[in-house]
Amino acid sequence: MAQIRVLAEELTDQLDSPTLVEGLPGVGLVGKIAADHLVEVFDMTHYGDVYCGGVPKVAVYMEGKPTIHPPVRLYADAEHDLLVLQSDIPIRPDSATELATCLETWFEQLDVTPIYLSGIAREKTADVPALYGVGSDGVLDRLESAEIGLPTETGLVSGPTGAMLSHAVQSGRPAFGLIVESDPQFPDPEAARVIIKHGIEPLTGIEVPVDDLVDSAAEIRQAKEQLAKQMQHGEEESTQAQPLGMYQ
Hints:
alpha/beta, Rossmann fold, 35% helix, Proteasome_assmbl_chaperone_2, PSMG2_sf, Proteasome assembly chaperone family protein, proteasome
């Protein structure tokens, strides 16, 4: 049965039109790294478990802790009106459509505005990764106010995040998409830093410390490398933005 099991009901009344940051694994694991960092740096509360159709029926356990959890969870920080959708496993695009449909009623109840995150594969250089923003009707003025750059080429977002963005357009729900240049082969903490500082921060007005993210880049890359390899072997499950020039 599709459902969200709320574990911290006391936080629901404290949330006022919150912003949700989506952290499904994708190219460079940008969304995953950014979401995990937000949960850690703000010591966010485990708000709920997601049992929507399409989410694999597996149990996740954490290092040094005996408690098991579902692989897709929600975390909340009432002080910042912030929610994070965290996933420890890849989600197939067809399953992501079920996930988006399942979340929609909950989005409406809490008046949630989602920020979907995606990497676009680019070979690493010494330059700061470029970032640009897209969105559905109702949020474009906020992208402009946040001074987030416009796309420099025509492209698409595929994988689970693409499916959720497509559902937002179809349902008429406001939603942001942030796209950042990312390493196509390895976890990319630098791209995650850029999407936090130049995308999530200006859209939410929340200052996010990233020193630990930068200082621990090597450790983060090593810790996420196995998941990154899994994503490479299942490209259809990997969130990514890609140019459309070749098809035009």
